[in-house]
Amino acid sequence: MAKIKGFFIKIWQWLKDHAPTRRRIIQVYSALLFNANIKGFFKPNEIIYTGNTKVMCVPGLNCYSCPGAVGACPLGSLQNALLLHSKPTIMYILGILVLFGMFLGRTICGFLCPMGLFQELLHKIRSPKLKKNKVTRVLSYFKYVLLALLIIIPLLYKGIPFFCKYICPAGTFEGGIGILSEAANSDFFAMLDYLFTWKFALLVIFIVACVFIFRFFCRFICPLGAIYGFFNKIALLGIKLDKDECIDCGKCIDACPMDIKKVGDHECIACGKCVDVCPVNAISWKGSKFIFKNKEAKNPVVDSPIDIAKLKNVPANTEAENRQVTAENTSTSQEVKTAINKPQKPKYSRQNKLWLKITAPIVATVVLVSALVYYNIILKPDPMPSGSSVVQVGDEVPSFSLELYNVPQATLTATPTGVSHSFTAKFDGDLKIQISANNVKAFNGDVEVSSLVVNKGDVVNLTFKADINTEFTVYFISYFDTTKLNGKVTVINFWQETCDPCVAEIPHFEDLYDFYNGQINMIAINDDDDYTRRRIQAFIDARGWGDYDMMFGRCLPDDVFNAFKVLGGKNAYPITVVIDTNGKVSNITQGGLSYDELKLIVETAMVS
Amino acid sequence: MDKVFALKIRKIFGWITVGLTVFLGALFLGNVLDIYFTGKAKGVGAVVYSREIASQHLATILPFFIFYVVWVIAVLVIYTKFKVDTKPSVYSEPVYIFKRYQKRLISANALFEGDREPLFAQYNSVLDKIKKLKIITLAVWAVAIIAFLVYMFLPSSFTDKNHATEEVLRMAYIVLPIFMVAFAVNIVCNYVISNICNGFLPSFKDLTKGLKPVNTSRFYDNKKFILILRIVIIFIGALFIILGIALKDNDGKNGVFYVLQKAINICTECIGLG
Question: Least CA distance to A598: which residue of chain B?
């Protein structure tokens, strides 16, 4: 019985000795809070959280494609803002980064970043470690090179989220693998190619490196740490050094696992190890007088003149050298005595002030529990599941109609006798005539018309009349209608302008459409609203797609039938849906398609 | 327990862990490359990745992965059993010790007479050497940055926005080696500086005997300045956020809209899915 009791006492003692530090608890807490949408990992219809809390960036590196993420990633949002050249967005993100940096500095790295937690846990695997040295110090500047590239490349190129696409392991680990691990998302495997291979290889290298090198990614790669490092010296939270007390023993720099030159510089992640080892209490937390109780040191920091001599003069590396130094410095005994008689700086206790001790855990627990309950229990999914395709292969294509881009228009002056205008129809189907002036009417021959049914290539002659001379603009709006596919194979592609693979593959679609010379229907659909129409049209024109023969459709969010939701699938682009000659869905592909791949799919649909 | 024996045990198990970790990483790498190149070899239309293929490959790694996890836990226990008390060492990087000695010289220039004068002359020549090496380092970095900027902003460098990926990779092949050279030169210079400092340390010890260190203050030690700077920066940050919400672009959307749009749609290429 005593033996069993002793065993449990040993276990309890081990747990006490290895209890997580406060910093570790805060790291786990923040990782859980930033990924509070835990059900996202288990529910196939809701791959990622799509609610409004994602307008806010989390302070650390946490990919917003992670199924559990409830906030936006600051780096990804910054890149997106630069890609769009949208001044309000750039300002918004920079403002958030500035405030985070100013209030917290790189305390974010040490306490709040989930990637930092992951790396530190990996580093706990017991093995020889690569200590910091001259090389690591120099290489720690590589993240500033990456930060410059992160800013310059998106500005030069639209469509390249450079860091996210080629480097960021958080996206691969949290987003990519998080999504692929769910069985219902097996169709995502079809889009994996060289990029996934490269990023997965990079992820493996990062993980292995983190086992041997403390915070490998943070120290050498992370541009977010580079940004926050600029604020470290002046941030409200962090580590500070009392230069009057400092005796330059170097123990702080030795204890620090990061590549600091001085305590609190741009590499400091405020882990607090230097605070523990400083023999003269010269290092403390900023704002510590508000958080910690002062506690007089029970013993003088140094116990004898010999210790002071050792600390204040040459920092000796060996015992023999220590004794030699002590002997050499007996002449400074007067200084030493003065140092001992100097009042000792009070040592800040590890005991927090009582009010903080009580309120902080309660508030933190309430916030976390509320977040978990809100995201996982209270929030209900959309009635029309936006996280999955409603149609499957083999289903009849739903009936819907979409307005097209590339709307021909003309500015004319209508007269009582009429003014003529002719153009060549670009697409088959309904053609709506939209006139900006109410008193102007359109005539096809003698018949007043507001719409026509045309075939591609038809020359349309219209006359516009008004009671009085009226200047107006007329738009000829074509439609794509799934009830009028004419027994042709139809390729429906869903794209976004900020999606590089989407933009890259559209010329292939046009090439294939030209190859088949009208024997198939081809449409690329963008979800749109009245505000973004001009931007999308300008994007199409800038790329030269305005001259393409294939169709570009608008899917408005207020449409009774929202093609994007039903056919667009899992909020991921691009998606290509192929309809066969019988009007049934024959293929749904997620990810970019090459010319040959698309041709194979179309030929298969033609045969079926 | 004998300290030497405990250290040996820890060393052996630690290095075995190193080997196992690297091997596990190589297994994952090998499998993913195998899937990719096997699919590519079969040609267009052949399946490269699928859930079944990935599961098959994971199944081959799984037993070793389980063994690795058990091994890591076992080593954790072994390290606890073979505990070794190590005294923290004082940071012994020569450059940092050199700088600590330098602090003692700041207020004592006038005292370098008599015996200390030759040492002081030696110290000045060491400083000259270090200065030259730092100039070389800075010069190499300046060349690298200028070359990078020239390349980035030359009209002929980026011509085809439809093949941005290839353009970026081409840039990486040309520009990254320049930075690698700059890093290499920096590291070599650091080593040389460290050796120079190390060589002079014993003489520096004699030179600074009896002198007290003097801490110089910099602009961010001025509390008033820091307070004003903090207020200004916080104000700018808040202003940027307000402007980002209030201002609208040509499409009538504010900054919050685009952040939300990006965050609620999966960017498959951002997460490495392609």
Answer: B45
User: Which among B94, B73, B183, B267 is positioned nearest to A574, based on CA atoms?
Assistant: B267
Considering only CB atoms, A91 lies closest to which of B92, B240, B272, namely B240
Strands A520-527 and A489-494: parallel
Question: Which phi and psi angles does B68 have, rounded to 5°?
Answer: -65, -45
Topology adopted by domain A239-286:
Alpha-Beta Plaits (3.30.70)
Half-sphere exposure of A521 (CA within 13 A, CB side): 27
Kind of pairing, strands A429-435 and A470-481?
antiparallel
Cβ–Cβ contacts within 10 Å for residue A155, how many? 13
Chain center to CA of A498: 14
Quick one: CA torsion of B222, B224, B229, B234, rounded to 10 degrees? Answer: 130
Hey, are the CB atoms on A532 and B11 less than 8 Å from each other? no
**Across the interface, do B273 and A186 touch by the CB < 8 Å criterion?**
no
User: Can you list the positions of beta strands (E) in A381-540?
Assistant: 401-404, 409-414, 419-424, 429-435, 441-444, 447-448, 451-454, 459-465, 470-481, 489-494, 520-527
Domain A485-607 - what CATH class?
alpha beta
Q: Helix or strand or coil: residue A421?
A: strand
Contact A24, A112 (CB under 8 A): no
Give the highest mean pLDDT range of A1-5, A183-187, A207-211, A499-503. A207-211
Kind and range of the H or E run holding A411: strand A409-414
Cα(A468)–Cα(A449) distance, integer angstroms: 19
What residues contact residue B256 under an 8 Å CB cut-off, 6+ apart? A55, A92, B244, B245
Chain B environment of A14 (Cβ under 8 Å): 80
pLDDT tens per residue, range A116-172: 999 999 999 999 888 888 889 889 999 998 898 887 777 776 667 888 888 999 988
Which residues contact residue B219 at a Cβ distance below 8 angstroms, ignoring those fewer than 6 apart?
Answer: B225
CA A481 to chain centre: 36
Q: Can you state the angle between helices A500-516 and B164-207, rounded to 10 degrees?
A: 160
Nearest-angstrom CA–CA distance, A188 and B269: 12
User: What does the alpha-carbon distance between residue A563 and residue A525 come to, in Å, rounded to a whole number?
Assistant: 9
| DSSP tag of A72 | B
Domain-by-domain residue ranges, chain A?
19-233, 239-286, 401-481, 485-607
Q: At a CB cut-off of 8 Å and minimum separation 6, what does A325 contact?
A: A309, A310, A313, A314, A316
Categorize the per-residue pLDDT at A351 as very low, low, confident or very high, splitting at 50, 70 and 90. Answer: low
Q: Which of residues 118-137 of B touch A (CB under 8 A)?
A: none
What CATH fold (topology level) applies to the domain A401-481?
Jelly Rolls (2.60.120)
Instruction: Give how far A52 is from chain B: nearest CA, Å.
Output: 7
Q: Rounded CA gap, B182 and A410, in Å?
A: 59
Q: Which residue of A has its CA nearest to B189?
A: A134
CA angle B159, B165, B168 (to 5 degrees): 65
**What's the ipTM?**
0.86
Instruction: Give residue-wise pLDDT tens across range B109-165.
Output: 555 666 677 778 888 889 899 999 999 999 999 998 888 888 877 766 666 655 666
Separation CA A439–CA A592 (nearest Å)? 48
